């Protein structure tokens, strides 16, 4: 398949595809007799992996070490999962605060505000953040 076909199948621009060539994420394919690049399914699979990982927030600079190393990829996915779980815990705690404010009046923090409850508002349950892993795990 040609450059435009590969880019369309993967949902990227031709410029993006060429950038990935320039930084070494995708190898240059062979050329047809009329000098068009000829991609195959391996190129498409690799491009889709690159897109999936960048959508998960992996910087392009980190991709070379994980694209071809299953152990590095597994470590990366573990790290991404831990980060996602921590984000879920933070959002769950935020939702608990929102629920308390809804239940007791959103303006209850402000002195002299009409509609403020005269009773104390219980603190929402706080979920501690996980310890952050340092360099090297």
Give an overview of the whole structure.
The chain is an all-alpha fold. The chain folds into two domains: 3-66, Multidrug-efflux Transporter Regulator, Chain: A, Domain 2; 69-103. The chain contains five helices and two strands; from the N terminus they run H-H-E-E-H-H-H. The chain has helices spanning 3-10, 14-22, 41-55, 63-67, 70-104; strands at 30-31, 37-38. It has a two-stranded antiparallel ribbon. A hairpin with a 5-residue loop joins strand 1 (30-31) and strand 2. The mean pLDDT is 85.
CATH architectural group of the largest domain = Orthogonal Bundle
Q: So what's the CATH class of the largest domain?
A: Mainly Alpha
What is the number of beta strands?
2
- Distance N to C terminus: 41 Å
Q: In percent terms, what proportion of residues is strand?
A: under 5%
Strand/helix succession: HHEEHHH
User: Could you report the average pLDDT, rounded to the nearest whole number?
Assistant: 85
C-alpha-based Rg, rounded: 25 Å
Q: Biggest sheet, strands in spatial order?
A: 1-2
Q: What count of structural domains?
A: 2
**Sheet with most strands:** 2 strands, antiparallel
Helicity level: 40-55%
* Total DSSP helices: 5
Shape: elongated
| Named CATH topology of the largest domain | Multidrug-efflux Transporter Regulator, Chain: A, Domain 2
Residue runs with pLDDT of under 50 for 5 or more positions: none
Helix/sheet category: mainly alpha
